[in-house]
Amino acid sequence: MALKRRNKVSPNFSMSSMTDIVFLLLIFFMITSTLINPNALKLLLPKSNSQTSAKPLTTVSIKDMGNRYDFFVPNSDGIIVKVPFSQLEKIIKQNLQGKDNPTISLHVDKTVPMEEVVKVMNIAKNNKYKLILATSP
To answer: What domains sit in the chain, N to C, each tagged with a CATH number?
Structure first.
């Protein structure tokens, strides 16, 4: 009596599950890498030895662009956007509206003249906001 096997064992290996895992890992690492430092401007900050314990509620960055100075503020989604100086005070007020102890962190390039820094300081003073000048340790 000749017995035949009905189901043949296939020596092939399916790579579809392996490609799914690799694809999911790729998506995971792409998302986590953007969460590390999503909206950072590269600024050369002045050096300081002292630090403050106040936690800023919003940030203002001033970057030297050669012949002009650009102001950057996070929008309602937390994405840092370039803002003209004429709109800066309005956007800061929107970001700090209804917050207790409103504090602004000011990040300024080393090469930006003090005049531009004082403009933002005056906005903070006129609205009774606390201001922290960010420095590198």
So the answer is: 58-133 (3.30.420.270)
